[in-house]
Amino acid sequence: xxxxxxxxxxxxxxxxxxxxxxxxxxxxxxxxxxxxxxxxxxxxxxxxxxxxxxxxxxxxxxxxxxxxxxxxxxxxxxxxxxxxxxxxxxxxxxxxxxxxxxxxxxxxxxxxxxxxxxxxxxxxxxxxxxxxxxxxxxxxxxxxxxxxxxxxxxxxxxxxxxxxxxxxxxxxxxxxxxxxxxxxxxxxxxxxxxxxxxxxxxxxxxxxxxxxxxxxxxxxxxxxxxxxxxxxxxxxxxxxxxxxxxxxxxxxxxxxxxxxxxxxxxxxxxxxxxxxxxxxxxxxxxxxxxxxxxxxxxxxxxxxxxxxxxxxxxxxxxxxxxxxxxxxxxxxxxxxxxxxxxxxxxxxxxxxxxxxxxxxxxxxxxxxxxxxxxxxxxxxxxxxxxxxxxxxxxxxxxxxxxxxxxxxxxxxxxxxxxxxxxxxxxxxxxxxxxxxxxxxxxxxxxxxxxxxxxxxxxxxxxxxxxxxxxxxxxxxxxxxxxxxxxxxxxxxxxxxxxxxxxxxxxxxxxxxxxxxxxxxxxxxxxxx
Amino acid sequence: xxxxxxxxxxxxxxxxxxxxxxxxxxxxxxxxxxxxxxxxxxxxxxxxxxxxxxxxxxxxxxxxxxxxxxxxxxxxxxxxxxxxxxxxxxxxxxxxxxxxxxxxxxxxxxxxxxxxxxxxxxxxxxxxxxxxxxxxxxxxxxxxxxxxxxxxxxxxxxxxxxxxxxxxxxxxxxxxxxxxxxxxxxxxxxxxxxxxxxxxxxxxxxxxxxxxxxxxxxxxxxxxxxxxxxxxxxxxxxxxxxxxxxxxxxxxxxxxxxxxxxxxxxxxxxxxxxxxxxxxxxxxxxxxxxxxxxxxxxxxxxxxxxxxxxx
Lengths: 528, 311
Fold this sequence. Notes:
Distance between the termini of chain A: 36 Å
Strand content of chain A: 15-25%
Largest interface: A-B, 42 and 56 residues
Shape of chain B: elongated
Number of helices of chain B: 11
Oligomer: heterodimer
Helix content of chain B: 25-40%
Structural class of chain A: alpha+beta
Distance between the termini of chain B: 41 Å
């Protein structure tokens, strides 16, 4: 007895080092040494690419003329504005040249309109005016326009009266400043004036033609000496609820007191015509103008505005290729759940916790490793899926909204982050439920199902699902810009999410964080 | 001052109405093999999990080298544990299982190969663990326990599923570890597995430590050991031995059966009193019988103690 008690006690001769980096290394080793998990990550990437390719393959667009088979061609490319953004530039313009500095003034005394009752399917041979009802689009426009050329997508500045947003000064498609409020009528006419001084265009309005107020100024770059000035009317398609397309509309404006004053020569004849038309924007009918002693009556259909996807314009967002994302989320949810439940299945968790008694750190290390791996898979998948589906969509005749490299990078990184955080969400739920099927079902029901429902449910239910559930993270796919000055159904179907990409991602992160906090509590409290 | 490398004190833990641990107290000394024996469900595994900080107790403490396991900076360097050899990811190789464990402590792959050699796992280490026999899994589990070269080893039923050759190897291996000065705690529900290897025994039954003793002492203290002696002065002998606390019964002419006193003590007592003694014989139960008697009594005691307690 006493002999054994005095035996020298042993001291480990292995130099060890513990800390979070070592823990990360251990969890990474765990991950990479199970081939099925590495394969599953690749599968998620391939599903994202493959499903996106498949969806792009099924999206054909274009126009055919003549009896079948006829001659068909793809959608024309969307017009592009001065800053590279997609624009609509379709309007009726009554114009004359203006050389050097000068101004144009007119009074708008009436603005009325009609709304098609045939939706976008304005059939050839039918009279759009009989197949319509009276009504004025809220962003119907009648006003003064100055532009260096009639080329579609060129720079411009305009001051105009609208259907229900008062007087506006607009320039280069995206800029919009409010002037006098209120609708135009004979008793409440609007005086408008555009003044050019060099490259600076000033828009002004007045209720009486005496007291003028500057709405704002716009600077147009490298303006030539001679520009086109005149009266324009256009009327954009009206959104119809949740539907992807809208109703074409038509507006008629009445102008009087039209005056062009120029430092140089002036007094040319007025020329009128439909500009920028074509199949890329749904219009009601051709425009027209009449010049009489009392002034001008101008009618038109279309819009001068940034293009949005929905009411009026076709075209696919360049990030449309990411429809496969939801399937990739299902795959990484399975991966995340398995990465956790494999610890429970045969009691491996005891070995893990015996090596690292700080359980919260183990959860953090697992989440980081899983998140990093799936992030890379998601980004790679998004980049390839976008590139592949862009090629296929273009080959199938689809017009694409332009997307800047920065936006493309943001979408790819955002999607990678959503894939990663969703995998971590599944991991956290699996740590709570200890069963992978429960965790996978929970993630699909809270993330993928709301996303799909939001694509099919009309109205506010779908919108709220995309605000409140983890599916809000899909907002990172948004590559289109919404504009207050363009009426549209800014719905998920059209590629517009109710939350900004960052806010949507934050909602997903908040849910995941909540699941992680609960998981950490349970891991620490439960016997391993 | 205790020299114990592992000290558990008054561990209590209930699962619902069941007392899994009911005041478990013992120490594991370095340089020897401590057998931790008791029937299935006695609390052996629970106690080991508590020592490793895996299970929480309602009260009591478990210290390793004077510290709670959860506070150890480098646990694998302090304790090597083999709880369940089957706790493996089946589609990961044995070597990779050791590798992630090693990485958690910043140990290099070379250390992994060392312990693979140490347990004789050999080339099987690179195969998927799902295909291992139970014996190979035990070896892998011991390799994992040895990664940090720890001074304390806790092994839950390490002989389970091992073939005779493996058992011989394991005994030699564990003996060598103890000889190096490590504290080795081995649990088993079979006394026979421990009787030739354990230097010390902790017998547990129904969450209570029934004996914390050497093998010899255990045999001596349980009922079932008795001494027969032949004396011409049987009444004198009875008086002396009863006075010393023995229980004496005549079992023939000049023959007495004594329980409760060890043979050496009987000889000494009778010698001091001048009582003649012509023959003395010790009868001892085997260790297995001793163990069975002990744990059976514990069962009866437990039943009696819980009588009248609402369940």
